[in-house]
Amino acid sequence: xxxxxxxxxxxxxxxxxxxxxxxxxxxxxxxxxxxxxxxxxxxxxxxxxxxxxxxxxxxxxxxxxxxxxxxxxxxxxxxxxxxxxxxxxxxxxxxxxxxxxxxxxxxxxxxxxxxxxxxxxxxxxxxxxxxxxxxxxxxxxxxxxxxxxxxxxxxxxxxxxxxxxxxxxxxxxxxxxxxxxxxxxxxxxxxxxxxxxxxxxxxxxxxxxxxxxxxxxxxxxxxxxxxxxxxxxxxxxxxxxxxxxxxxxxxxxxxxxxxxxxxxxxxxxxxxxxxxxxxxxxxxxxxxxxxxxxxxxxxxxxxxxxxxxxxxxxxxxxxxxxxxxxxxxxxxxxxxxxxxxx
Length: 342
Known about the structure:
Elements: E1 7-9, H1 15-38, H2 46-67, E2 70-74, E3 78-83, E4 89-93, E5 97-106, E6 111-119, E7 123-127, H3 134-142, H4 149-182, E8 194-200, E9 208-209, E10 215-221, E11 224-231, H5 233-238, H6 241-247, E12 253-259, H7 260-267, H8 275-279, E13 284-286, E14 289-291, E15 296-298, H9 300-341
Parallel strand pairs: 11-13
Antiparallel strand pairs: 1-2, 2-3, 3-4, 5-6, 6-7, 8-12, 9-10, 10-11, 12-14, 14-15
Helix pairs in contact: 1-2, 4-9
């Protein structure tokens, strides 16, 4: 190998890559902070910890994606790949390269080319978005090497296979959700499974708007300041929310209805807490009914009706989505077989 390379191709360092690196470190610190916050409480919320771990994994992947890109040195007789993250070099003798293949990829926002250099022992991939002078690099490598059309067909068939399997898998998941919604066990929706208690409000009474437009009301009470009592989802849709926030103020007395299980385990503490009771939304309690001495803003019968309607509507919506995704996936498999046979 000559001491001086013919060409050197370094990874791009545009705004996008600095943003990815910044996002990676932000995700690491953000996920770590969320986990630290979760474990400050007596019963850490496992859902919060789970999503924090997912955020940390995304951060690690983003950092690896940026630092793990390879600088390419081309000599007269050898191709050298060196990662920015590891000191290890990969050496590919040019005489061992038997062919090459290139496919075009795209997603919602971008498109790029993926070059595969093929040797008898291994295949090496290079994405065009990683190198500003990708075309020059490709021409330097493949100038006197045959293009492998058959392998390009295999790559295209693999992509279609992966997408089809994902679509079918997601479609089946939606069909399962549909089955459970349409066959939901509503025997628990009886007044005997709920408990009404008198409470004094200590928080501001207002409607909260979520990022996706969902609305809810969160209350805290004098007797149980450590818990957040929330009216959301089916309960919010069934209640007279605007009248409630207009007429009821801080320090007013209300009668709230909640699941008897929540009352007995979390508030009265007459039943033992299970592992999941302690670690999944322990400090969150759903309100299913709310009234004052003179007005009923959310009664159980309206709440029950809203739950039943949601089960039916979601069931048919999930069934339609699941069927469409599964059918598209099956057509994708048929297309993959045609490409492979061509």
